[in-house]
Amino acid sequence: MRILFVQSRFPERDGPSEQIRLLAAEMRGRGHQTAVAAVPTGAAVEDADLARFPLPRVRLWNPLHTRRYPAAAAAMRRALVAFQPDVVHVNNVAGLSLEPIHAAREAGARVVVTLRDYYFGCGPGRFWRNRWGAGGTRCEGAAPGRCLLCGLASARAGSPASWLVALGYAAQNVTRPALRRALDECAAVIAVSRFMRERLSLPRALVVPNMAPPVDRASAAPPRQPDLFITGGRLVEEKGFDVAVRAFRRTPRLRLEVWGDGPERPALRRLAAGAPNVLVGGGFLPAAAFRARLLSARALVLPSLWDEGCPNVALDAFAAGAEVIASAVGSLPELLARARCGEIAPPGDVGAFREAALALAARPPRLPEIADFSARAVGDAYEAVYQPGGHAGAARLVLGIPLEVGAGEGATPCAS
Questions:
Q1: Which of 289, 342, 286, 346 is nearest to 314 (CA)?
Q2: Is 281 a domain residue?
Q3: Domain limits at 71?
Q4: How far is CA 364 from the centre of its chain?
Q5: Which of 56, 184, 209, 409 stands 20 to 30 A from 98 (CA)?
Q6: Residue 282 belongs to a domain with what CATH number?
Q7: CA distances for 148 relative to 23, 169, 282, 337, angstroms
Q8: Do 202 and 247 belong to one domain?
Q9: Is 64:88 a contact under the CB 8 Å cutoff?
Q10: How many helices (H) and strands (E) does the chain have?
Q11: Is position 380 within any domain?
């Protein structure tokens, strides 16, 4: 089978790019051929076996998706002619338009779409509402006035062009019939969590979680440090890293390392000043180095304030044998229930995160269960979806996994 992945930007330091690399490697290991069509980033190619075809970035697109883009369509057709895929697996279309989906269907390929963010329900893809003169907050859902104010607040410090983009996002949030029609025309639609499927109101979508990276827990693993907790990622407001820093400032016998970069890093460093047990690092660690830190850590801290879809960093922790302390938002309770380990705390509650860290430090570690996120399980699901008529087989494979965990419920602990 020949599988062409489509992604808005590749390679990139983000979750979708990592998932494409992992899934493509798994499919090649099963004897399939893989390639990716994406807007090139100029970054070094980490996987020489993954052929790449360039797509143009659609910068000033029609937010109503009521027009076509000849240059984007022609680039996608060139990729289709050159690679001759049986399956086109679309991951993100933000900045690409719907041309990859249209061209693939016209070429007779089987089109599968994986929803890795909320773009089909929210222009910026996050359901995070920016507000004038105040911090952001979780968005209740698309509404004309709410989306317009959010777009204007997002662009208030940007260039004139950013105001046009913001207005486009606002329009896109409330006029998306073309996006929904595009999904209806695909052979299969996949959400990376049950929460995402329900948040986007797509009851027929399959649920296939992201894939955990291969980590050898036993080979050369450093001793686990029971007082060390790790967090990291894009240092932005909606990730809630200030909650973790405040919690550990009040817990001097436990250590916290914060790795990543973004606009909140200066504020986090100021907040951590005077707390020798809290380290705000100088930027992103390479993936291998970050996973090595997780192998040493007692747990990962995920204090997110927005509705996470299926964060790769949680799967990195599970693969490394580290438990997770997470906010009761989005898919996080669902993921911890599937791993049968960890602690859930209310979002933004500094005291609850402190108590969760103390509780983990006081009890023996529990090894996360990662079978649901393994290359074998995720690969089996996608291989079933890729086959003609494979939707029903994939449904039997994937939807039999118990996922009935609502926000706010605690994770089910596994045996120590």
A1: 342
A2: yes
A3: 2-207
A4: 30
A5: 209
A6: 3.40.50.2000
A7: 37, 8, 36, 37
A8: no
A9: no
A10: 15, 15
A11: no
DSSP 117: S
pLDDT at 196 over 80: yes
Contact between residue 291 and residue 213 where contact means Cβ atoms under 8 Å apart: yes
Tokens of 182: 């595009």
DSSP conformation class of 237:
G
As a whole-number percent, the residues of the chain with pLDDT over 90 amount to: 63
**Alpha-carbon distance 394 to 25, whole Å?**
20
The number of domains in the chain is: 2
β-pairing verdict for 128-131 and 134-138: antiparallel
| Closest listed residue to residue 408, CA positions, set 338, 352, 347, 361 | 347
Which two tokens mark 170? 């606002």
For 383-405, the pLDDT digits (tens) are 999 998 755 555 544 544 433 22
Q: Are residues 8 and 46 in the same domain?
A: yes
Asked whether residue 388 is domain-assigned, the answer is: no
How close are the terminal C-alpha atoms of the chain, in Å?
Answer: 43
Residues 183 and 252 both lie in one domain? no
The DSSP string of 249-270 is: HT-TTSEEEEEEESTTHHHHHH
257 φ, ψ to 5°? -115, 130
Tell me the chain's radius of gyration from C-alpha atoms.
Answer: 21
Number of residues that this document lists for the chain: 416
> Bridge-partner residues for 16, per DSSP?
none
Structure tokens at 157: 């410090």
183 and 124 in a common domain: yes
Q: Is the dihedral of CA 304, 343, 210, 307 positive or negative?
A: negative
Q: Which two tokens stand for residue 333?
A: 């309770």
Cα–Cα dist 16/9, whole Å = 9
Mean pLDDT of the chain: 86
Report how far Cα 272 is from the mean position of its chain's Cα atoms.
Answer: 27
Q: Are 139 and 146 within 8 A, CB to CB?
A: yes
Q: What is the largest CA-CA distance in the chain?
A: 62
| 158-177 pLDDT, tens digit each | 556 556 666 666 666 555 77
| Nearest-angstrom CA–CA distance, 308 and 127 | 10
Whole-angstrom Cα distance, residue 170 to residue 157?
17
pLDDT at 58: 81
* Distant-in-sequence, close-in-space partners of 146: CB < 8 Å, separation ≥ 6: 129, 139, 140
Q: Does residue 20 lie within any of the structural domains?
A: yes
Nearest to 304 by CA among 373, 368, 244, 230: 244
